[in-house]
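ok trying this again, last paste got cut off
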Amino acid sequence: MKDFEQIAKNFRDPENNNEVMIPPRNCFVNPPKAGHVGPNTTFGGKIPYIVSYFDRPKELAHKERLAGAALMQDKPFSQKAKKTHLFNSMKNVIGEDVPIPERPVKEKSENPMKDERAFKPSHPPRAGNHGTLAPFPYYKEDPRIEVTRKLEVEDEKKPFKTTHNSKSTPMPSITTNMRNLKASFPSVFKR
């Protein structure tokens, strides 16, 4: 099999002694314009450089600030406390220009609650030795308990009981709620 069909073209003219025929040009374009390419190439001559003044808003703000400062008074408001000359001095206004008599010194008196009587408790113990109804009993040792091992009987085995390890615990949000804490520990929140 062939991959493609090759077409043989004959560019020779059979009438004019096998001369090679030249086909017409594919496209016609205008000739390039006269002149040169590169820097400083313009249509209407060189354009002069004009400076763009970007600091114009800043200059206007500066002029407005100077105009506002010219309208202000010489000295701005001061928070410094100044001395004022009063007609009367502070002592005359308060009344301290008159000598104040000294207060009499109080004499210290003895404590009126001092009592010379012997101490007596408010709730004395009942009659008896050491404040008990009867004298203390004599010391007696506890009797010795003998331990004997019990053998397990298979018939008497206890039934299986589940452990209590898997009990549910309350959530921290419920445990630390103020209302629940007051209910659980009333003595802590007592006023």
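PB: full thing came through this time. The helical segments are 56-71, 90-94, 172-175, 178-184.
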